[in-house]
Design brief:
heterodimer; A: mainly alpha; two-stranded antiparallel ribbon; 22 helices; globular; B: mainly alpha
């Protein structure tokens, strides 16, 4: 087997992406078809590469910075997933994007994103990884910016948030390189002490911010409304989770020795738990299909961070399994949202309703993916969540409690969403709505099918993909496939889900509509105040950061002005005083000059006559 | 031609040619413009010819012995050739841009004469291996930049030009005192290896910091934004402010040795400078002043890399000079297009230019990406290497301060991009009228990108240069 083939998943999409960017429009009449073929070829290559093992190095920057790639089980699994989503969503976009904004740019950024993501995963040198990882910023920016009119602002926000955390990662990488004496990821294994903890934290910031965890999340809901929908399904829905969690796993499993009960592990779990609960609370009250989903995209990453942060096998396996499951059902959900948007022209839940009969396939897909995300047996979300619960409980009941509470609200918000969009009364406007075309429902249905497969036959993904990542040694010979072993937890989950259904029925009964089913939570005392502030963005960490930077820059600015004052004012005035003094001595008066001469003469005399 | 002759002609052809430029201007515009471009391209090609020879490890010397340690010595080593290549490359693009920009104004003959003279002096400075000649060329650049900043001849411009001149010359005089002290110690003005006393280092640093517009001598630089845009690009971004940085590298790294103390002190000054000016850039509303503050801030990063002084940091610092020069020149030239067409520099009055000047907007964005240090643009590598070298040297805390500086870089560049190119138009309509100007900014944006994608070549040059500097082979 020729080793250069490892370059294909990177080079192929990148070259095609650049081609779209540079070549004038008339040369790519078949834009979409070509993109489709390329993502398909990319998928085939990654299938061939799956579970192969080899390294590949090219000279690059010099100074010890080589372009080294490494294919092994974990990286080949992630690129396979990336390519699968790339392929399915291209197919979906063929129809979705037709007749909209710059098709050329859409596919250009799409392909570039794929190539860069593959590069980041395959990289074996941290610098190479950073190169691809951070370059994703440019495509992220472009991707969001081609959305609707106000999208540039959101694009800038996303760029700033992720750019700043990527810079943290840059410092983390050079620090790791210094401590370990190498940048080769597979050779690094550092204990967490002093400086290496700092390095770990900086790298973790990069990883969880890519994943979309709090406090780096706030661009995602904005992007949901501004960016083109396939972007949401591809990037925040799937790729960013895959990349962020991939790297988080790499640093906590291989590159650093993250031990359970260490402060950093607890810190990670806390971030995860907070992300789960805060984001899902926001999702609950959203009145827009896509915006609601975007908060779930944030909330779900909390489960993964929590799971990996536990540093116990059940939690890590759960976190990783949840990563792939979430990528499936979340992109599936976004695609159903896109189908609704395509056919009705809106995603505003107040206008939607009763679409189940008009769009039965989309509804079925929605149902399956929503049940998966809510963690209902036998769909995939159930199994991964149970594993995360298991791990969380090992580390403290509070983490478990928050995770389960998160599930309650997740189920509640999807009951609301499904009810508001697909059930209830059909809006008169949408009488003529039809099911979407084959290229749009096929990817969605495929993803929904995978959600069932990964649940019913969870031994397949767990044994084939997830468990080898940890290795037999770390798993201590155990396997997590099959039905959960801890029946108490399963019972609690069922109780919570039933509670969510009851809560929904209560809400519908008291307010009379699916959309308002959670109003009794939204407008509960205290909560309504908090919601009010959150909706006005008072609680957005991005806004806080920007406010802080404005304050700092004000101070810097005044400091700068103060220095300038020395040149503009102080220096000028001092000179003026001095020269005016001298000027006065030259008044043209003979007696003045004579007296100065006399004084001068005396001084010279004293100088000459002084005793040596 | 021998390599010695090539070396001399790289310096003296533009310097003498500069005085022919006004004469050519009396004959025809095209002749004058062409002559200026040819003179600078000539210098560029000389550096290009020297490149393979010098990088194969054979520096070129020219020396003519004079009494009192005033030997007339020029050296083309890797550092000098690298620097002269960068300067002449960027100024060729800038002068091409000037064809469009300056054609609307009076005193064009003087403009081209001064620009070419400036560049000749710059190349002379770069190749000088004698402190007194270095000082002479240094002051020629000061005088020409004084004329160029005051190009518009109104009271405000003239005052700002005076300010720039006074501050930099004040620093230069202190530096001259430092040179005298070196002479007292070594008995010659020719660069040698010696350990310098701290007083001399302080005096020379005053000169370097004032020329490179670093805290506390930096405020002349934003004020000099009153100059025509190609001048600000030439002076602020690409070349003049790099003189200080270059002299730092030349004196304190590749020739004399200084106290270890400075490896901490200079980064601290640079960090303060980077933060203060980045903060000011976040508040400033004048487009060109804002970009000038950004330059001050980025110069801090270059000093950081050079002062740390290990191999990685030096390579980073040198690449930073190149990448920042390209990208920042692009930003200034874009600002020039905006300013000339929209008739205002106040960013609060601008907006929505993305639709009317898309090429300028995209070029601005690409150059901004490079300054921010986003891959695959060249700025990424230089920033990475500077940080990498600093951490290698154990300067973790100062690196974290610079990290904040890097955050702020992203913030202010996005702020200015948003305000100028996005949002709603506020009544200042503008179009891209002159194709030579647009071509120049697009070229700089592409060079920033290509510099990153084909990083192997510049990084190899910078690496060889750093190795030679650290070995102190030359002079």
């Amino acid at each position: 087997m020729i080793e250069q083939i490892i370059l294909l998943p990177i080079v192929l999409p990148l070259v095609a992406g650049f081609y779209y960017l540079l070549v004038p429009k008339k040369f790519h009449a078949v834009t979409g078809i070509m993109a489709f073929l390329i993502t398909f070829a990319n998928l085939l290559v990654t299938v061939v590469l799956f579970d192969k093992k080899f390294s590949f190095t090219l000279p690059w920057v010099g100074i010890g910075l080589d372009f080294s790639l490494r294919l092994y089980h974990f990286s080949s699994f992630i690129i396979l997933a990336v390519s699968l989503f790339g392929f399915l969503i291209t197919l979906y976009s063929l129809v979705f994007i037709r007749g909209k904004f710059g098709v050329k740019y859409f596919f250009a950024y799409f392909l570039l994103t794929l190539g860069l993501a593959n590069g980041a995963v395959l990289a074996d040198n941290l610098m190479v990884m950073l190169f691809f990882w951070e370059a994703l910023l440019v495509t992220l920016f472009g991707f969001i910016a081609i959305g609707n009119k106000g999208a540039f602002k959101t694009a800038a926000k996303a760029f700033i948030i992720i750019g700043i955390s990527d810079l943290c990662m840059m410092i983390g990488i050079v620090l790791t390189g210094r401590l370990a004496g190498t940048l080769t990821m597979s050779e690094i294994n550092l204990p967490l002490t002093g400086l290496s903890s700092l390095a770990f934290v900086l790298l973790m910031i990069g990883a969880i911010s890519k994943g979309g965890s709090m406090p780096f999340h706030s661009w995602i809901p904005d992007a949901a409304t501004d960016a083109p929908l396939p972007f949401m399904a591809l990037v925040p829905g799937a790729l960013e989770k895959l990349l962020g969690i991939y790297f988080l796993t790499r640093i906590s499993l291989d590159m650093f020795q993250l031990k359970e009960h260490s402060p950093l592990s607890t810190a990670m779990m806390t971030i995860g738990a907070l992300t789960i609960i805060l984001a899902v609370m926001m999702a609950l009250i959203q009145k827009d299909y896509k915006r609601l989903l975007s908060y779930h995209a944030i909330s779900q990453v909390g489960y993964m961070v929590l799971g990996i942060g536990t540093a116990v096998p059940a939690g890590i396996v759960g976190g990783l399994f949840h990563m792939i499951n979430n990528a499936l059902y979340k992109s599936g959900l976004f695609l159903t949202g896109g189908s609704v948007e395509k056919q009705t022209g809106t995603t505003n839940l107040e206008e939607l309703g009763g679409l189940a009969k008009k769009m039965p396939i989309t509804f079925c897909c929605f149902l399956i993916t929503a049940l998966s995300i809510s963690g209902v047996w036998p769909f995939n979300g159930f199994f991964s969540k149970e594993l995360v619960y298991d791990g969380a409980l090992e580390r403290g009941w509070i983490f478990y409690f928050v995770a389960v509470l998160g599930s309650f609200f997740t189920a509640a918000s999807f009951l609301k969403l499904g009810h508001a969009a697909f059930l209830g009364k059909l809006n008169e406007k949408y009488k003529a709505v039809k099911e979407v075309a084959f290229p749009m429902w096929f990817p969605t249905a495929t993803i929904a099918g995978l959600c069932i497969l990964f649940g019913v036959w969870n031994a397949f993904p767990l044994k084939r993909f997830i468990e080898p990542i940890l290795g037999a040694e770390r798993l201590e010979g155990k396997s997590f496939a099959g039905f959960p072993t801890n029946m108490t937890l399963v019972v609690i989950t069922f109780v919570v889900l039933i509670a969510a259904v009851l809560n929904h029925l209560y809400g519908v009964k008291s307010k009379g509509s699916g959309l308002k089913a959670v109003d009794h939570i939204h407008y509960a005392p205290v909560l309504s105040e908090i919601y009010d502030r959150a909706q006005k963005r008072y609680l957005d960490p991005y806004e806080w950061g920007m406010g802080f930077m404005r304050f700092v820059s004000r101070i810097a600015f005044w400091f700068d002005r103060a220095i300038d004052w020395i040149y503009e004012d102080l220096a000028v005035r001092t000179t003026a005083v001095f020269t005016n003094g001298i000027k006065k001595l030259h008044n043209g008066n003979f007696s003045t000059y004579l007296s100065w001469s006399l004084v001068g003469f005396l001084l010279v005399a004293i100088l000459l006559l002084r005793p040596f | 031609m021998t390599y010695e002759q090539i070396l001399l002609s790289a310096i003296f052809v533009p310097i003498t040619g500069a005085f022919l430029v006004p004469l050519a201007g009396r004959v025809s515009r095209f002749l004058r413009n062409g002559l200026s471009l040819v003179l600078i391209l000539f210098s560029f090609s000389c550096s290009l010819v020297l490149l393979p020879h010098v990088f194969s490890g054979q520096p070129v010397f020219f020396s003519y012995v004079l009494p009192l340690g005033l030997d007339f010595v020029f050296v083309a080593d890797k550092l000098a050739v690298f620097m002269s290549l960068v300067s002449t490359l960027i100024s060729s693009v800038i002068i091409f841009y000037s064809f469009g920009y300056i054609s609307h104004y009076e005193n064009q003959n003087e403009y081209y004469c001064m620009v070419v003279l400036f560049l000749g002096a710059m190349v002379g400075l770069v190749f000088s291996a004698n402190l007194i000649f270095l000082y002479l060329f240094w002051e020629i650049t000061a005088v020409t930049s004084w004329r160029l900043i005051g190009f518009f001849r109104e009271r405000k411009q003239v005052l700002k030009a005076d300010k720039a001149f006074l501050v930099t010359v004040f620093g230069a005089l202190l530096m001259l005192l430092g040179f005298v002290q070196i002479y007292q110690q070594t008995g010659t003005f020719v660069l040698t290896h010696a350990a310098l006393p701290n007083v001399a280092v302080v005096l020379i640093l005053c000169g370097i910091l004032s020329k490179s517009a670093t805290l506390p001598f930096h405020t002349w630089l934003p004020d000099a934004g009153v100059a025509p845009s190609p001048v600000t690009a030439l002076l602020h971004a690409a070349i003049l402010v790099k003189i200080g940085v270059y002299v730092y590298a030349r004196l304190f790294i590749s020739s004399y040795s200084i106290d270890v103390f400075w490896q901490t002190a200079v980064p601290v000054i640079a960090a303060a400078s980077a933060l203060v000016s980045a903060g000011a850039a976040l508040v400033e509303t004048d487009l060109k002043r804002l970009i000038a503050y950004s330059t001050v801030s980025q110069i801090g990063f270059i000093f950081f890399g050079l002062a740390i002084g290990n191999e990685m940091a030096l390579v980073g610092g040198l690449l930073y000079i190149l990448m920042h020069g390209l990208a920042k020149a692009g930003l200034f030239l874009c600002a020039g297009i905006v300013e000339q067409n929209a008739k205002t520099k106040n960013i609060t009055e601008l907006g929505g230019l993305m639709t009317t000047m898309p090429k300028t907007a995209i070029s601005f964005l690409l150059c901004a990406f490079s300054v921010m240090g986003i891959p695959p643009f060249g700025g990424f590598f230089s920033k990475y290497m500077v940080f990498s070298g600093a951490i290698e040297a154990g300067q973790v805390w100062i690196s974290l301060v610079f990290l904040i500086g890097a955050f702020m870089t992203i913030l202010y560049l996005f702020r200015v991009f948003n305000m100028v190119f996005l949002g709603e138009s506020k009544g200042h309509e503008a179009k891209e009228q002159d194709s030579s100007m647009v071509f120049s900014v697009v070229l700089l944006a592409i060079l920033s990108l290509v510099g990153g994608i084909l990083i192997a070549f510049p990084s190899m040059l910078a690496h060889d240069t750093a190795v030679q500097m650290l070995a102190k082979v030359i002079p």
